[in-house]
Amino acid sequence: MKNVSTKFFVIMLALVVSFVAACSSDSTTDEPSSDNESPSLGGDLNIGVVSDPVSLDPHGANETVANTINATIYDRLVYMDQNSEIQPGLAESLEQIEDTVWEAKIREGVTFHDGSELNAEVVKLSLDRVRDPEVAAPVAFLFGMVTDVRVVDDYTVHIETEFPFAPLPAHLAHTAGSIISPQLIEQSYEDLANGENPFTAANEQPSGTGYFKFESQQPGNSVTLSKNEDYWHEEKAKVDTVTFKVIPESLTRIAELETGEIDINFTVSPSDVSRVESNPDTFIEQVNSTRMVYLGFNTEVEPFNDVNVRRALHMAVDKNALVEGILDGVGIPADTPIAPGVYGYSEGVDSIEHDIEQAKELLAEAGYPDGLDVTLLTDDERERQDLAVALQSQLAEIGVNVSIDTYEFGTYIERAGLGQMEIFLGSWGTVTIDADYGLYAVFHSDNIGPPGNRSRIANEELDQLLDAARQETDPETRIELYAQVQNKLAEESPYTYLYFPDNISAVRSDVEGFWQYPSGYFFLRDVTLDR
Question: Where do the Solute-binding protein family domain residues begin and end (predicted)?
Answer without folding.
Answer: 85-448
